[in-house]
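New here. Your pick:
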Amino acid sequence: METKKIIVSGLVQGVGFRWATQLLAKDLKVKGTVKNLANGDVEIIAQGNSLQLAHFLSKVKTSPTPAGRVDHVEVEDLPSSDQFHSFNIIH
């Protein structure tokens, strides 16, 4: 399993971005978390195989919700682990 930290900037808070990201992750069987950051960005920790994560990332880059807008995506590889059993929104 690969694990990635994804920081998404743009119009990503208050538009259903976390909810839509969770639905996308569940559909693609990606595990992890999504949360709002104080600076207006969204942080995603995503875990899956390389094909799952590539598809997930391509959908995140185009905004999983039509009301949102993604201006920038930063991706960082994290050490692999199996710490996630589902995909959850952190409030």
